[in-house]
Amino acid sequence: MDTMYTFSSDKFSPVSGELDQDHDDYINPGCFAKQLADFLEANLQDQHYKVQFRCAEDWGQWLELEHEGNYTLAIGCANMSEIEDGVAEHRVFISPDKPVIRKWLRKIDIRNDLEQLSSALKSVLAADNQITGLKAEKMI
User: Is 54 exposed, middle or buried (0-12, 13-18, 19+ CB in 10 A)?
Assistant: First the structure.
């Protein structure tokens, strides 16, 4: 099961303040993901995933999704390279990244949820012609 996608795109660049140390949107030097997170939030809604919480992290953006399970299902996204000739490398990953998690000493099989989210992510990313070199990886 694929839980991480990498790709190149000229569609996502830093927004005003995202690379400015004195601005509230500043994450880390050279790190940006706000436009990519906006894109994922809007397009995953079409796939019946609604973002219930979103925040900037020191590595990019974190989007927690509404779902019926009793655990946090989320997506993280960030750039992996500086913009060169208008194009940057990006990463999107699913959390948790394992098909079985532990909660209160119980094992919970979340394989179905991960497979459905992975399929939705792949569909959203593959459908955009400004996203190239899409590669799926297993983090487990």
Answer: middle
